[in-house]
Amino acid sequence: MEFLLDQRPNWNEATGADFSALAHDHQRPPDRANSGADWTTWLILGGRGAGKTRAGAEWVRGIAAADKRARIALIGETEREVREVMVEGVSGLLAIHRADERPLWTSSRGRLEWQNGAVAQVFSADNYESLRGPQFSAAWLDELAKWRQVFGLGTTDALSGDVARWATIVLTAYFGGRSIEKVARILSRK
Length: 190
Description:
The structure is a single chain. By secondary structure, this protein is α/β, with parallel strands linked by helices. The chain has a single domain, classed as P-loop containing nucleotide triphosphate hydrolases (Rossmann fold, 3-Layer(aba) Sandwich). It is built from 7 helices and 7 strands, in the order ααβαβααββββαβα. It has a 7-stranded mixed β-sheet, sandwiched between helices. A hairpin with a 4-residue loop joins strand 3 and strand 4. The radius of gyration is 16 Å and the shape is globular.
């Protein structure tokens, strides 16, 4: 155990950033939707420390590695939260890559670019208008239960337009406290 704890700062380099060998079942994308069809939305609910952010980041990493034309939206409550958790955080996109495969992060543009050409862009849920226009193949939405306006529950629809129609979506959300009611309302929407 001490050996593993000592390796933590260099864990990605020491393991070759092979998350698949270490991931829990709930951190792996489903093979199929309950209907047997391809899934379009994967909801990861969990408490603190459940590995939601790591699972979301690993999913984005896999999309980017598999598709050089991938255009990925990274959406959080604010652009600052996307940057600090989803991109620069301890389980974020920069941290989960080995140094030699890490995407280029241009913070002034809110943009990650992988060596193969795949791109991820940062968006704030409050600025849903910025999602109009760009076409995305995938989207990771983090902590949607914290958003003031989600899926038509407020005065705006944070997923209007291109994202809702064309993207495969992963939603990561804390499931506890006051968020339970909001997540239940989101899941029950028609």
